[in-house]
Design a protein that fits this description.
The complex is a heterodimer. Chain A starts with a strand and ends with a strand. Chain A has strands at 4-7, 10-14, 19-25, 32-37, 43-49, 55-58, 61-66, 71-76, 85-91, 100-101, 105-110. In chain A, the strands form 2 sheets. In chain A, strands 2, 4, 5, 9, 10 and 11 form a 6-stranded mixed beta sheet that branches. Chain A contains no helices and 11 strands. In chain A, strand 7 (61-66) and strand 8 form a beta hairpin. Chain A is mainly beta. In chain A, 0% of the residues lie in helices and 54% in strands. By secondary structure, chain B is an all-beta fold. Chain B contains no helices and 11 strands. Chain B is globular. In chain B, 33% of the residues are buried. Classes of the chains: A mainly beta, B mainly beta. Chains A and B meet through strand 5 and strand 10 of A and strand 5, strand 9 and strand 10 of B.
Chain lengths: 111, 116
């Protein structure tokens, strides 16, 4: 059974600081997704990572994928309050588009 | 980008009644649609996968007779919660994928169901 774990589950950080969210998964996969969810809202797609070593950046967020380690990271640079949200990674292990979501990381940026 | 809509956005119903939720892809043909549920402060759990014109595939533990899914066209899938009970109260989110090489799934805005 595929397990997708994120850590930390909760993260409170000050504006301007850097931090990394980790996503570990238990079965080989080369498709990993990152999403953002605001309270009461649906998911917003952030990144799609499709191969080992893939790195993508958008603004203050950067995501990477290491398929050998079964690990993806979401790095936040110089955090701002607008980044406060819950972040999910999701894995597609069979290439059939069925996503298994991680536990989520609730990020709070403190001014 | 591709847009997926859901209707209704919120619904309150009485225990024992049935509720239908629609998921539409507005500007692309969705060969596959997925239904997820999310309980408060929890992650998303895949309920079922539907392909146009064929029966939905349900995940383990999801009652197919309780959660009826129809994918009648390439732009519409419906989820009907039959004989709803308070424990069915949840946030239901659909997603859709089309015949593209991007491997993106496009998520709808979600439907919050409250069963009283």
């Amino acid at each position: 059974e595929l397990k997708v774990e994120q850590n930390p589950l909760f993260l409170s950080m000050q504006e301007g600081k850097n931090y990394t969210i980790y996503c570990n998964y238990s079965t080989t996969s080369d498709r990993l997704y990152w999403y953002r969810q605001d309270p009461g809202k649906s998911l917003e797609s952030l990144f799609v990572l499709l191969s080992n070593g893939a790195v993508k950046q958008e603004g203050r967020l950067m995501a990477s994928l290491d398929t050998k380690a079964r690990l993806s990271t979401l790095h936040i640079t110089a955090a701002v309050h607008d980044l406060s949200a819950t972040y999910f990674c999701a894995v597609d292990i069979r290439g059939n588009e069925k996503l298994t979501f991680g536990t989520g990381t609730r990020l709070t940026i403190i001014p | 980008g591709a847009v997926v809509s859901q209707h209704p956005s919120r619904v309150i119903c009485k225990s024992g009644t049935s509720v239908k939720i629609e998921c539409r892809s507005l500007d692309f043909q969705a060969t596959t649609m997925f239904w997820y549920r999310q309980f408060p402060k929890q992650s998303l759990m895949l309920m079922a996968t539907s392909n146009e014109g064929s029966k939905a595939t349900y995940e383990q533990g999801v009652e197919k007779d309780k959660f009826l899914i129809n994918h009648a066209s390439l732009t519409l899938s419906t989820l009907t919660v039959t004989s709803a009970h308070p424990e069915d109260s949840s946030f239901y989110i659909c997603s859709a994928s089309g015949q593209t090489a991007s491997y993106e799934q496009y998520f709808g805005p979600g439907t919050r169901l409250t069963v009283t």
